[in-house]
Amino acid sequence: MTVDLGLTGKVVIVTGAGGGIGRAIAQGFADAGAKIVINDIGASLGGEGGSASPAQETRAMIEAAGGEAAISTDSVADWDSAQKIVQCAMDNFGRVDVVVNNAGILRDAIFHKMDPSDWRSVVDVHLNGSFYVSRAAAPLFRKQEVGAYVHMTSTSGLIGNVGQANYSAAKLGIAALSKSIALDMKRYNVRSNCIAPFAWSRMTNSIPANSPEEKARVAKLQQMTPETNAPLAVFLASEAARDVTGQIFAARLNELFLFSQPRPLRSAHSDTGWTPELIAERALPAFRSGLIPQEVSGDVFAWDPI
Questions:
Q1: Based on the domain organization, do 46 and 75 belong to the same domain?
Q2: If you average pLDDT over residues 255-263, what whole number do you get?
Q3: Is residue 170 one of the residues assigned to a domain?
Q4: For a tag on the chain, would you pick the N or C end, based on fewer CB atoms within 10 A?
Q5: Pure H helices in 201-252
Q6: What is the mean pLDDT of residues 127-140?
Q7: Among this protein's residues, is 132 annotated catalytic?
Q8: Cα-Cα-Cα-Cα dihedral of 50, 56, 57, 63, to 10°?
Q9: What is the band of 201 on the pLDDT scale with cuts at 50, 70, 90?
Q10: Does the global pTM surpass 0.85?
Q11: Residue 282: which domain range?
Q12: Which residues of 218-252 are buried (b: 16+ CB within 10 A; e: fewer)?
């Protein structure tokens, strides 16, 4: 059976599309017949500098395959700049149908050594950027009574990771942002979903590979190319997923995952209310089997990608 994705002629904004996962997603949408706004400022992994070259390379690839694309080099991390990204789509293609919030930077540090500037920079790009670009497109989606958002979250936020307090907080915030968008814009037939991508890219190539065990792990990770995330992003924005919203998915090589979302696990009741001592005596023993272990993403996804 052939599924009609309904993306031919649609206009898709992909932020951070100058390379890696963003480029793969932009190409995936172009292959499905969509017109692409390639947004990328061409900065380093830490967010420094800027160049139009990465976006131009992505456009050349799309056009070589017969697709259409325009370039925006505006930053997602500024409200006025985000408006220009959406306006780029309007100026070039006359509409916006899909927003993929993928742009990101990394400034890793152990929490007690993290500089406030590194906190602000990462939150500005990931969380604020996702809000700014999504919010800029919202009036258009509302007017046309249809639209789709795909946001990039991370298992660093959903599960946890060491040395990434800024990144983890921003990525978990994006999951909550997506759910709020899904709830607030449901009446306008606008959908919002998240992907926690697994891919070997410049955001993961700093993983050490010194020992034989580390080298073997990196070899496995390198199989998870950015392209393995594109089909999920394209699907979530397509007509085939028209009833899917407010969800969190992951793509890991040939595996797909649907994530749970926080819900109550245990309950305890006291007719006379609670004191700290009574909580220790009665509630904690009742809750203990449900306490979440202190794991990082690698502990939960402990098996090799298949």
A1: yes
A2: 97
A3: yes
A4: N
A5: 212-221, 230-237
A6: 98
A7: no
A8: 160
A9: low
A10: yes
A11: 268-306
A12: beebeebebebbbebbbbbbbeebeebbbbbbbbb
